[in-house]
Every structure is written in C-alpha cells, then in structure tokens.
Amino acid sequence: MKKVILKFSGIIASLALMVTSMNVNSTCIYLAYQPELPKSAEKLRKN
C-alpha cells in the first residue's frame, strides 16, 4: 500500500497545484465560492 501512495503522491500534488493556480486566476462563481485565498496562493497569480 505504501508503494501505491508514494507512486501517486506526485500526481496528486501536481493536480492540487494546477487546481489552486486555476482558482487564483479565475473569477469567483457561485459553486466554487471562496471568500479568502490563502496568502501562499497569491504567488501563483498571473499579472
């Protein structure tokens, strides 16, 4: 089981980074409303 977790941990981490980056750079919609972004997510914002 540990091998499976280690194998997919990189995929899950990259997916989480991609979703966070998309969330920072998009406008807020009703279903995905997030009142405040974490301060660490501000680095991912495109100018």
Question: What letter string, H or E per element, gives the SSE order?
Answer: H
Structural class: mainly alpha
Low-confidence stretches: none
Strand content: under 5%
Radius of gyration, whole Å:
14 Å
Helicity level, as a percent range? Answer: 40-55%
**Main beta sheet:** none
Mean pLDDT across every amino acid position: 76
In whole angstroms, how far apart are the ends? 42 Å
Anisotropy-based shape: elongated
Tally of DSSP helical segments: 1
Oligomer: single chain
- Report the strand count: 0
Model description:
The chain is an all-alpha fold and 47 residues long. The chain has a domain at 1-26. The chain is built from one helix and no strands. The mean pLDDT is 76.
Question: What structural keywords apply?
Answer:
49% helix; 47 residues; mainly alpha
Layout of strands and helices, then pairs:
Blueprint: H1 2-24
Protein name: Cyclic lactone autoinducer peptide
Task: Write a compact overview of the structure shown.
The protein is mainly alpha-helical and 47 residues long. It has one helix at 2-24.
